[in-house]
Specification:
962 residues
């Protein structure tokens, strides 16, 4: 029911892992939100891994604004540096940096980044215990330098046979949650090797045991294989799950899952596996690709793909697993043949296993998610029951948003039934451009149907299927959406009553934050699945659910909890955040561990609370008195900035669109005494279908300012004003595409933002810098090209600058280069490199793995700038991918950024008045020329522009996370 934006990894100092099905992320390492890190969710209601990512993205909207895109880290953990770093205080010579030495930023910034991270939290299924999962600070570059295999869109650490650069914990503390809401003393999980790196922590269904993996670095600093361990929650004593020391975990895809309270299904490295295949010195022949059948195959610029037969063999070597069923008493049984298993999901009644695998023929142009996929049904002791589907290689999925794979997809167990399957099948051949009704059909069928029994049609949809929230035979919610129109609908169905007609519960624009009714809160079942929590009131026969909403308003987000009558549509607000000083959210239902009906006067919730200056703490809030008992008392992560000033500001673009931004000012700053400051504007554009939606306020003025290791807010410590996240809406109403007037709208938004901070007297008009990461870097380069009158310099991290290098779509642009040539050209700052006269700092990871932002983009852009005499600098970070992870890399990025800002922003002494007038005329002419060129090329209309590899959204309920 919410707009799902692309999943971005962002740094966060405090983490709450998926509270209920806790499995730290094997497929999504180190997903980090501004206040929460959600682990790998094994939920029976999630449709598939793509939907899971959408669910995670939905939670970020509920749990607060994300830290700037550049603030994310690809990995937590690690220790001291193994690479030489200059102990600079910001005065290191440029020669040192050019000589290849890593630098340190000034102490004001370094001290904030060096602060130890707070632990991650996880609640037991019975809600009576809390895990504190302890983390280390940034890893050393040596960890990123370990060899990795780039295969089928993945990066694999061959030494430990898992995804490379995986996050880890260094310890587990267990606390009893006492009846009064306080925490008991910590009990350390012990018994595993010193220095062990912990991953994939997961509770048994009864909460009596923990399972997790351990790996220990070898003497040569290479990572060892992973072994599975279990710990008794009452004693904290840990031991290896397997008695044999030769059984290792294969965590390239799935890893292990509790089948019942005393046994786990584990993906292991086959015991018969030998050494890795050796690359032949002489190839057997040329590399040939052919399209003699003239198929239409359009794909985005995926990276790390298979290149040849050797890569195929290597992929099989690392990805092939042997499934093993192992009991806590040591009983071991291999089940099924070795294969590339990608997921294993026990049925709620623990009788069946839903097993997914991929197989040859592989592809050299798409990642493994599109390889041939087989889904089978087994009994939990490994007996084959039936094949559900065997989908062919999917190289030809159209690039249009909402296009999907043909055949069965999103196959899952019903959360409210012992062993009933459901799935969706497209009726448009997976092509979003095909007009057909219905577009998707949802089917359901028992695990073992009677002979001749066909799948039953559960529901038909005219938009694209987005998932189901189950409750029981009388209630389920079905979600559908369509990206082009931003339409999202929620249906109420009664799956057990065939004569009950489905009805639309909500039908709205996913862009319209103000109309978001919230998402149903889920309760945990004894089998470990999650269903919609039905709430009862004394002497009332109504059917109520809890709608947990972010509460977007023109004054900012004011989260709420509504008691909603599913039959009448009436609602009663039973909880709302304090809107004057604090920002509070409902995180999870804590009274769901008891079987039977949930009564309103016995409700118990986990809530969070924060303010501008107070970091997030967690509370247990109980009805009927709604008393909140604190359960955490985390220290302020950066006390030196505890008194920073934060304000959500509103202003207007010249075309009437309302804009917002968050203005941060240093502690103790007084504009009347201190005068205007140098200012850093950090942003990321977004696309909208309407001006009204673009002008809506998002975020809360009372949210705590999360500062990540590369956050723009670090420069508050250097006495900068920071304009964070000013809205840069790119609007395409009606039949107009959002990118049809990209440059014009981009410049207008930036002008309005800068005019506002200058008018307030907090920013010096000649000392305003602009920066961004990924699509924000693309924005930065375009602004320096087309609006040189606004900014004195720019910082562009991990961007793409030449859209012709991503010819089959980028960001939210699903037209090809040949369908929208003028758009691709006019949007590319590479094509305007000759216009960039202001200093620009380019930073890029040498191993960038993000589609569209190849390192080559910065290389070629730098050469184009240099070829026109521009003042520019390119910093390529060894071993880093799209986000920066290593301590040395991050510290050097901060040094580079600070040096750039000090030299070209703080020290900027240009004649601002003359420059503003001259440059503004040139910029207006540039925009007009762009419009004229685009109109001539297309026969009318406007130019188009934009960037990053966002894959659309699925509207799903936020509370599915919990």
């Amino acid at each position: 029911m919410n707009q799902m934006m692309g999943l971005h990894k962002v740094y966060h100092r405090l983490t709450i892992l998926s509270l209920f099905p806790l499995c730290p992320p094997p497929l999504f390492p180190s997903l980090k939100l501004s206040r929460f890190t959600l682990g790998h969710l094994r939920t029976h209601h999630s449709a598939n891994s793509a939907r899971l990512r959408s669910i995670m993205a939905a939670a970020t909207s509920r749990l607060g604004n994300l830290v700037s895109a550049t603030s994310f880290v690809a990995e937590d953990g690690g220790g001291g540096s193994n690479v030489s770093v200059n102990s600079s205080t910001g005065t290191s010579t440029l020669d040192d940096a050019l000589g290849g030495k890593y630098q340190l930023p000034p102490p004001e910034i370094k001290d904030i980044v060096d602060a130890p991270p707070l632990p991650a939290l996880s609640f037991s299924p019975q809600r009576d215990k809390i895990l504190f999962l302890k983390r280390r600070s940034l890893p050393p570059l040596a960890e990123l330098a370990r060899p990795e295999e780039k295969l089928a869109g993945m990066r694999i650490d061959g030494k430990c046979n898992t995804r490379s650069r995986m996050s880890f914990y260094i310890g587990i503390g267990i606390h009893q949650l006492l009846p009064d809401g306080s925490l008991g003393p910590e009990k350390e999980v012990h018994g595993f090797p010193d220095g062990g790196k912990i991953n994939f922590v997961t509770w048994s269904l009864d909460g009596r045991h923990l399972a997790f993996s351990i790996r220990v670095d070898e003497e040569d600093n290479s990572s060892s294989m992973l072994r599975v361990w279990v710990a008794d929650v009452e004693t904290g004593k840990a031991r290896p799950l397997f008695q044999s020391q030769d059984v290792y975990l294969n965590a390239v895809f799935d890893n292990f899952v509790w089948v019942d309270n005393s046994s786990l299904l584990v993906c292991t490295i086959p015991s018969s596996r030998g050494d890795p295949p050796k690359k032949p010195l002489v190839p057997s022949g040329p590399k040939i690709q052919s399209n003699e059948t003239k198929n239409v195959v359009q794909v985005r610029t995926f990276q790390d793909l298979l290149k040849d037969e050797y890569d195929e063999d290597l992929f099989d070597y690392y990805a092939t697993s042997q499934l093993v069923l192992v009991s806590l008493d040591g009983t071991v049984k291999e089940i099924g043949p070795p294969a590339v298993y990608t997921s294993m999901d026990p049925s709620p009644d623990q009788k069946y296993l839903l097993i997914s695998s991929i197989h040859r023929p592989y592809s050299f142009i798409v990642p493994c998610g599109r390889f041939p996929k087989r889904v089978e049904l087994w009994t939990t002791d490994g007996k084959f029951v039936r094949e559900l589907c065997d989908l062919p290689l999917a190289e030809d999925i159209p690039i249009a948003f909402n296009s999907v794979r043909k055949g069965m997809r999103s196959i899952n167990w019903r959360a409210d039934k012992p062993s009933t399957l459901y799935w969706a099948e497209t009726q448009d051949e997976g092509d979003a451009k095909v007009e057909v009704s219905p577009r998707d059909i949802i089917y359901t069928q028992p695990a073992e149907p009677l002979e001749g029994e066909q799948p039953e049609i559960l529901h038909k949809l005219d938009l694209r299927y987005g998932g189901i929230s189950w409750s029981d035979d009388s209630l389920a919610l079905v979600y559908e959406s369509w990206y082009k129109t931003r339409r999202t609908r929620t249906w109420v169905i009664s799956p057990g009553f065939k004569d009950a007609s489905p009805r639309v519960l909500f039908d709205r624009s996913s862009e319209d934050a103000y109309s978001d009714p919230g998402s149903p809160m889920m309760r945990r079942t004894p089998s470990g699945t999650y269903v919609i929590a039905k709430i009862k009131k004394e002497n009332d026969e109504g059917t109520y659910v809890l709608l947990n909403g972010i509460g977007a308003t023109p004054e900012g987000n004011i989260p709420f909890l509504d008691l909603f009558d599913i039959n009448t549509g009436s609602k009663e607000r039973i909880w709302q955040s304090d809107k004057e000083k604090y920002f509070e959210t409902v995180v999870a239902l804590m009274s769901d561990h008891k079987e039977g009906d949930l009564y309103l006067d016995q409700l118990k919730l986990l809530t969070s609370k924060e303010s501008k200056t107070e970091n997030t703490q967690y509370y247990i809030q109980s009805w009927p008195d709604k008393k909140a008992c604190p359960i955490t008392n985390f220290p302020h992560p950066y006390p030196q900035l505890a008194s920073l000033q934060k304000e959500m500001i509103r202003y207007q673009r010249k075309d009437g669109v309302q804009l917002t931004a968050t203005l941060y000012l240093p502690p103790g700053y007084d504009p009347s005494k201190d005068g205007p400051l140098p200012c850093l504007v950090w942003s990321y554009p977004g696309e909208f279908k309407s001006k009204d939606a673009a002008g809506q306020v998002r975020g809360s003025p009372n949210e705590f300012a999360g500062i990540g290791p590369t956050s723009a807010l670090l420069w508050l410590a250097r006495r900068f004003a920071i304009l964070s996240g000013p809205t840069i809406p790119i609007i395409g109403e009606g039949d107009e595409e959002a990118n049809d007037r990209y440059v014009e709208q981009l410049v207008a938004s930036a002008e309005a933002a800068v005019e506002e901070v200058i008018q307030r007297g907090v920013a010096h008009p000649g000392k305003i810098a602009v920066g961004g990461h990924s699509y924000g870097a693309f924005m930065t380069a375009n602004l320096l090209a087309h609006a040189p009158h606004i900014f004195c310099c720019g910082i562009a991290r991990s961007g793409a600058y030449n859209r012709t290098l991503t010819p089959f779509g980028f960001q939210n642009e699903d037209r090809t280069l040949w369908e929208a040539t003028s758009t691709y050209v006019e949007m590319s700052p590479f094509m305007s490199a000759n216009k960039i006269k202001k200093p620009i700092l380019l930073i890029h990871g040498e191993e960038d793995n993000n589609p569209g932002t190849l390192t080559m983009q910065s290389d070629r852009f730098f050469n184009a700038l240099k070829g026109h005499g521009a003042l520019c600098r390119l910093v390529v970070l060894p071993f880093e991918s799209h986000g920066y992870a290593a301590y040395e890399s991050i510290m050097h990025v901060l040094w580079e950024t600070d040096r750039w800002l000090q030299k070209y922003c703080v020290s900027n002494a240009s004649d601002v008045g003359t420059e503003l007038d001259a440059c503004k005329c040139d910029a207006n002419k540039d925009v007009t020329d762009s419009e004229n060129k685009a109109a001539a090329a297309s026969g009318g209309g406007d130019p188009e522009l934009e960037d990053f590899e966002h894959q659309g959204f699925h509207p799903v309920p936020r509370s599915l996370l919990w």
